[in-house]
Amino acid sequence: GAADLGPYRYYMQKEIFEQPRAVVDTLQDVTSIMPELFGDNGWRVLNAVDSVLLLACGGSYHAALTAKYWIESLARLPVSVEIASEYRYRDGVPNAKTLVVAVSQSGETADVLGALQVAKRQGMHHTLAICNVPTSALARECSLTFFTRAGVEIGVASTKAFTTQLVALFLLALTLAQCRRRLSEQDEQRHLLALRHLPDAMTRVLALEPQIVAWAEQLTRRQDILFLGRGMHYPIAMEGALKMKEIAYIHAEAYAAGELKHGPLALVSDEMPVVAVAPNDRLLEKLKSNMHEVSARSGKLYVFADIDCRIMSGPAIEVIRLTEHHGLLSPILHTIPMQLLAFHAALARGTDIDKPRNLAKSVTVE
Ligand code: G6P
Predict the structure, then answer these.
(1) Do residues 312 and 319 make contact, with C-beta atoms less than 8 angstroms apart?
(2) Alpha carbon nearest to ligand 1 atom 3, residue
(3) How far apart are alpha carbons 189 and 194 in whole angstroms?
(4) Does the keyword section mention Plastid (predicted)?
């Protein structure tokens, strides 16, 4: 009830601000990287696989897409990511040595359970559930499990479950790297330190809320918004667009910024604002030239950059700087402004934020 909302008006808002705590809890028992983090059979299973297939829906699908970048670059294993509702009805080519990872907050999503059953029926028996509910059907169906400790999530739009899924998936990438002897002890310590630092870094991103409120108020007057990202931040742009649709009811679409010129650029005008997730990584220069394509067509840009980034505010470009660049974990930090932007746009529009129309927290029927 309202009592446990504390100072917040909505569960989604409370859950956004709970994220540093949720990450601390999720990391609580992680003192080193080891296959047993994923269960008693962890060593046997994770050493037997030669590829990874991630299955998920909704926000969890975006977490899985981010994990593809991490697993490929850290563990050098081939990764595919599938929308569960599609995978279950496709004639996929099974590989008994694939690690099948089902990512689901609830562990009860019918399409995820269905897709997992298809994979098992095809002879793929190395299965891992990453979920937030230890008693869920999904946890019972998989040989390995990792439980995020976000705590009960009530808002229909996933927030703290999403960022803790990312933490779990990053741990999986590190563990697979270790199994393949691609993680030195030094690297392990460095990554663990970076993970431990996340809650503080997240707290500083949450403090950007007032600046994000100002943007949200401008964006609520729009019918459409384009979200751009590149590399491992493309799925974060997708998550931003999903949130905007789900709770603010604003049509939003995410594009990998390099694809802009292959279609959506035709839509850009002073009526079509563009939100860019633009952290300092090796794709920043590329992204900047994509942003010039937008400015040249009088599109207004809203850029989430990092502290040391040289993108300057101007008449048609606004910049909010995150307080630090967090390397491989940057997608986790850049998720928070996406959540706050959608939340405040929804607040300004007066929608039913915790229970958006037509949607359910957990979709247990097909
Ligand atoms: C529903 C919720 C989404 C969620 C998706 C997947 O559509 O509204 O917020 O991302 O289900 O849920 P899961 O529990 O499998 O992560």
Answers:
(1) yes
(2) 58
(3) 9
(4) no
The letter for the amino acid at 245 is K
What Å distances lie between residue 192 and 47, 132, 171, CA to CA?
21, 21, 9
Cβ contact 95:124 at 8 Å: yes
With a 6 A CB cut-off, is 57 part of the ligand 1 pocket? yes
Contact 306, 174 (CB under 8 A): no
Q: Given the structure tokens 């850009």, which residue do they identify?
A: 268
Nearest CA to ligand 1 atom 7: 58
What predicted TM-score, i.e. pTM, was given to this entire model? 0.97
Q: Render pLDDT for 285-317 as a digit per residue (tens, 0 to 9).
A: 888 888 888 888 888 999 999 887 778 888 889
Question: How far apart, in whole angstroms, are the C-alpha atoms of residue 296 and residue 303?
Answer: 16
- Between CA 170 and CA 219 the distance in angstroms is 32
- Here the tokens at position 347 are 């607040």
Q: Read out DSSP for 297-360?
A: TT--EEEEEETT-----BTTEEEEEES---GGGHHHHHHHHHHHHHHHHHHHHT--TTS-TT--
C-beta of residue 78 within 8 angstroms of C-beta of residue 106: no
CA-CA distances (angstroms) from residue 4 to 8, 60, 339? 9, 26, 21
Tell me phi and psi for residue 244, to 5 degrees. Answer: -60, -40
Q: Is the CB of 110 under 6 A from ligand 1?
A: no
Please name the amino acid found at residue 55: L
CA 153 – CA 207 distance, rounded (Å): 22
300 is catalytic: no
Interval between CA 193 and ligand 1 midpoint (Å): 30
For the question of an ipTM over 0.90, the answer is yes
**One-letter amino acid for residue 6 of the chain:** G
- How far is 44 from 226, CA to CA, in rounded Å? 44
